[in-house]
């Protein structure tokens, strides 16, 4: 009789996916907040160009994004070579590359959610903070950021879910190496290629569903706990 | 502390051009909606950059167009109370109040802190969030927040405009105390004659960006030129008086420099200085001291000026001692009495004509 538990290889894929998606989300979150703030509040030339650039991974076929990553961050590509020679840091065919691919794909979703949240904050509150002697950073840290907290959580969960599910750009950029770059979607895809592994596929699908629903519940709880304290006027 | 404002700036449809100095006490920036009042205090705050001119506070230059000086908002050390309170919704009242202290790294002045809480009556609200406050409470907290930033100038932009009548009456006494107990220059933007009459020491009268007149509230509100820019029902002089006695029938006897007056309201403390607003339509004129009249207040005056108005009426400026009064009569009455400038005349004021909100307290 077949075990009801996941095979060790599948567990590896689950843990790798968690690591890749969490690293991708957490490392790109500050940048996403900064870019969202620039797009929401900034007045500068080239704002539309930045906007288009951020949204590019959302509209490009993921395979194209993955190939572009390979062209820039591959071991023979300019940035890839620079990183390897200067810091010994390799992205291609490593889990770090999977994290980069996931981050790039999740970035537009995070920026969108956070930008919308920033746009709902009345700039007059930031003006009031300035009259009270607050620097821009102090105002952002103590006024804007707490007010956009639900949006930041929503953007993070959305970005994390995208990173968990990212397949096309990942498999193009870092391939599908078990234990190295094989995330849950890649593992499901690989298992589907082999006859007789349908039950393994089902288990991975089940785990994916549980993780996704769990993340939604946690984010709801975080936002609600905050709201109890602050009901934005 | 003297705040000097001399700026010009192009606004939609007209140019704003003002030049005045504000000392300790309330300087009201007064005019109809769209006269450019808020732009004036936004320029002082640094939220609006004028095209030309200078803004200085004693030896500090906030703005000087020709020298390219424009000090950032956060460095000007001023307290700004907005029309729409603008409390931070994510912070309690206590956190809102200490925001400036944290932002500027100020040292806690416990005495000042508790004095502000006391004068505004906001100590019981400290643990609450802005959403749990009434409109009047929010505005009091906003005033407290501005005061606790240890400002050198206080700017108030129609702080009562968003409140109903009852809430206004609740806040006005706090503003009066603020005026009388602080050394700050206070710029107070308003289009309400009754608020300005009650609070202002000095008035800057604006009309479509043009500065019509600057002067003490008693002078501006009794000026016939300034009167053209006020609504007909708003015409009326402001007088200062001192409480002499409170009578058992609820009438308070006060002494103005023009003579004794009876106010149909109980003001408890004797010797208290109050200000009265006497509307032009409530002042009748008589060539001789009237006898057998129900009105209690009769002041001997001299006609200082006469101005014809629309609708066959005339506005008469009276000098009653050093005080000035305005009176509106018909053209027919004027001809009938043959009123001329320089004539002695008696002004007859009905006690009931002094509405409650027209009486303000004044320390000193």
Automatic annotation (TrEMBL), chain A:
Part of the binding-protein-dependent transport system for molybdenum; probably responsible for the translocation of the substrate across the membrane. The lineage of its organism: Bacteria, Pseudomonadati, Pseudomonadota, Alphaproteobacteria, Rhodobacterales. It comes from Cognatishimia maritima. Belongs to the binding-protein-dependent transport system permease family. CysTW subfamily. The chain crosses the membrane at residues 20-40, 52-74, 86-107, 143-161, 201-223. Keywords: Cell inner membrane, Cell membrane, Membrane, Molybdenum, Transmembrane, Transmembrane helix, Transport. GO terms for cellular component: plasma membrane. SUPFAM superfamilies: MetI-like. Its main location: membrane. It is found in: Cell inner membrane; Cell membrane. It holds the Pfam family BPD_transp_1. This is Molybdenum transport system permease. Residues 14-217 form the ABC transmembrane type-1 domain.
Automatic annotation (TrEMBL), chain B:
Residues 292-358 form the Mop domain. Residues 5-233 form the ABC transporter domain. It holds the Pfam family ABC_tran. It comes from the Bacteria. Keywords: ATP-binding, Cell inner membrane, Cell membrane, Membrane, Molybdenum, Nucleotide-binding, Translocase, Transport. The keyword Transmembrane does not apply. GO terms for cellular component: membrane. GO terms for molecular function: ABC-type transporter activity; ATP binding; ATP hydrolysis activity; molybdate ion transmembrane transporter activity. The keyword Nucleotidyltransferase does not apply. InterPro entries: AAA+_ATPase (IPR003593), ABC_transporter-like_ATP-bd (IPR003439), ABC_transporter-like_CS (IPR017871), Mo/tungstate-bd_C_term_dom (IPR008995), ModC_ABC_ATP-bd (IPR011868), Molybdenum_import_ModC (IPR050334), Mop_domain (IPR004606), P-loop_NTPase (IPR027417). PANTHER family: ABC TRANSPORTER I FAMILY MEMBER 10. This is Molybdate transport system ATP-binding protein.
């Amino acid at each position: 009789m077949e075990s009801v538990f996941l095979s060790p290889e599948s567990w590896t894929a689950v843990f790798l996916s968690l690591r890749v998606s969490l690293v991708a989300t957490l490392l790109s979150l500050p940048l996403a907040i900064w870019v969202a703030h620039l797009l929401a509040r900034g007045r500068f030339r080239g704002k539309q160009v930045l906007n288009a650039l951020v949204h590019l991974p959302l509209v490009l076929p993921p395979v194209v994004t993955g190939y572009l990553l390979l062209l820039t961050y591959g071991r023979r590509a300019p940035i890839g070579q620079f990183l390897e020679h200067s810091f010994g840091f390799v992205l291609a065919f490593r889990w770090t590359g999977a994290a980069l691919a996931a981050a790039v794909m999740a970035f537009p979703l995070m920026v969108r959610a956070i930008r919308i949240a920033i746009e709902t904050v009345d700039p007059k509150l930031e003006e009031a903070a300035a009259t009270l002697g607050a620097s821009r950073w102090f105002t952002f840290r103590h006024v804007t950021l707490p007010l956009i907290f639900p949006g930041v959580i929503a953007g993070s969960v959305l970005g994390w879910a995208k990173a968990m599910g990212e397949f096309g750009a990942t498999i193009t950029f870092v391939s599908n190496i078990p234990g190295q770059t094989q995330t849950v979607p890649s593992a499901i895809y690989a298992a589907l290629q082999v006859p007789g592994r349908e039950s393994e596929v089902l288990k991975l699908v089940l785990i994916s569903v549980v993780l996704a629903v769990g993340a939604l519940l946690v984010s709801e709880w975080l936002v609600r706990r905050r709201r109890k304290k602050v009901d934005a006027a | 502390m003297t705040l000097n404002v001399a700026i010009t700036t192009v606004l939609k449809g007209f140019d704003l051009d003002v030049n005045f100095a504000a000392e300790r006490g309330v300087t009201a920036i007064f005019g109809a909606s769209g006269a450019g009042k808020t732009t004036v205090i936004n320029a002082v705050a640094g939220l609006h950059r004028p095209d030309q001119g200078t803004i200085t506070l004693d030896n500090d230059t906030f703005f000087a167009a020709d020298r390219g000086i424009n000090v950032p908002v956060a460095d000007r050390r001023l307290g700004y109370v907005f029309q729409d309170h603008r409390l931070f919704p994510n912070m309690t009242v206590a956190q809102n109040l200490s925001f400036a202290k944290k932002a500027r790294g100020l040292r806690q002045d416990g005495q000042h802190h508790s004095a502000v809480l006391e004068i505004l009556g906001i100590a019981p609200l400290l643990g609450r969030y802005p959403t749990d406050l009434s409109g009047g409470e929010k505005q009091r907290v906003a005033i407290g927040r501005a005061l606790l930033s240890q400002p050198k100038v206080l700017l108030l932009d129609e702080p009562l405009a968003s409140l109903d009548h009852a809430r206004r009456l609740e806040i006005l006494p706090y503003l009066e105390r603020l005026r009388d107990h602080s050394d700050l220059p206070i710029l107070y933007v308003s289009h309400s004659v009754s608020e300005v009459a009650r609070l202002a020491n000095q008035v800057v009268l604006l009309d479509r960006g043009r500065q019509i007149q600057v002067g003490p509230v008693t002078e501006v509100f009794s000026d016939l030129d300034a009167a053209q820019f006020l609504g007909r029902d708003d015409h009326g002089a402001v007088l200062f008086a001192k409480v002499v006695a409170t009578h058992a029938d609820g009438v308070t006897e006060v002494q103005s420099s023009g003579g004794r007056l009876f106010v149909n309201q109980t003001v408890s403390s004797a010797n208290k200085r109050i200000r009265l607003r006497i509307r032009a339509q409530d002042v009748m004129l008589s060539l001789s001291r009237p006898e057998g009249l129900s009105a209690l207040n009769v002041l001997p005056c001299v006609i200082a000026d006469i101005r014809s108005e629309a609708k066959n009426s005339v506005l008469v400026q009276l000098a009653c001692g050093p005080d000035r009064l305005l009176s509106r009569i018909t053209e027919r009455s004027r001809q009938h009495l043959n009123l001329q400038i320089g004539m002695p005349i008696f002004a007859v004021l009905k006690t009931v004509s002094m509405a409650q909100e027209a009486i303000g307290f004044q320390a000193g």
